[in-house]
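Suppose a colleague, Dr. K., hands you the sequence of a protein chain of 64 amino acids and asks what its three-dimensional shape might be. Before reaching for any lab equipment, you can write down a predicted structure in token form. Begin with the sequence itself:
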Amino acid sequence: MLAAWVHGRAWLWPQSVGAGSRKRGYVEGLKRTLALYVLVAAILLVAAVYEAIEVIWLVKAKGA
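The predicted structure, expressed as tokens, is then:
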């Protein structure tokens, strides 16, 4: 939802992101959305690694 809001805002109100036209606002919105997706992917990667470590630890603890 946040990425959709950021992109839509940049497209509908291009001056809010320093763009002169809606086309440039759309492109700037894509760039900002991509930056958000990179952050989300990084957080999901950390969460996946943590979950994998936790499951391995639980399996070892149950077997002992």
